[in-house]
UniProtKB/TrEMBL annotation:
Organism (species): Pandoraea thiooxydans
Pfam families the record matches: HutD
Record protein name field: Histidine utilization protein HutD
Superkingdom classification of source: Bacteria
Length: 203
């Protein structure tokens, strides 16, 4: 069983954006300590305080999901997407010019970035109190409890109680994730990441 790490997201450093439009908390990055030019994958939570452009990230696939707030309108060339419903992921290419216009006040979102050809990923969302068994094939798994509380079990290992604002990081392959139940308002947002095998590119 891999070592598990549970973090309180709000206890992580909030790094202000250069344009003053918000802050970002980095949940995890691979390789450890990598910057924007050399990461293979990166997961973060952003608090967006004002409208403005997204940073251009050529060669990076992005997926974003609204966690809190009234959301924002994402718009650009051949793109218009209202990111206004919580827990509904939206994927786009990092090189696509995107402007974000807030629909109301500040919002919080979770971002998954994967280097194209080196890794691929997706965001999965689980909601409600009913137990669920989800088969996963991954090289890294990050689960963020966005609302309520729930009990999570990986493979045949120990159970972990997560409450809103907790993140569970599993930095090794896992074959199964079991949500054993929780509060009726529970919402889990997971970044599921696969690395490309050595000498190959991720599909």
């Amino acid at each position: 069983m891999p070592e598990l790490t549970v973090l309180r997201v709000d206890a992580l450093p909030a790094v202000p954006w250069k344009n003053g439009g918000g802050t970002t908390r980095e949940l995890a990055v691979f390789p450890a300590g990598a910057g924007f030019d050399d990461f293979v994958w990166r997961v973060s939570v952003a608090d967006v305080a004002q409208s403005g452009p997204f940073s251009a990230l050529p060669g990076v696939d992005r997926e974003i999901v609204l966690l809190e707030g009234e959301g924002m309108l994402l718009h650009g060339e051949n793109l218009t997407h209202p990111l206004v419903k919580p827990f509904e992921p939206h994927a786009f290419a990092g090189e696509t010019p995107v402007e974000a216009t807030l629909c109301g006040g500040a919002t919080r979102d979770l971002n998954l970035m994967t280097r194209r050809g080196a890794a691929r990923g997706r965001i999965a969302v689980w909601r409600g109190a009913q137990p669920q068994a989800i088969a996963l094939e991954s090289d890294a798994l990050l689960v963020y409890c966005a609302a309520g509380s729930t009990t999570l079990r990986l493979d045949d290992g120990p159970s972990w109680q997560l409450r809103a604002g907790d993140m569970l990081h599993v930095p090794a392959p896992t074959a199964a994730c079991r949500v054993q139940g929780g509060s009726t308002d529970a919402a889990l947002v997971a970044a599921v990441i696969q690395l490309a095998p050595a000498g190959e590119e991720a599909a």
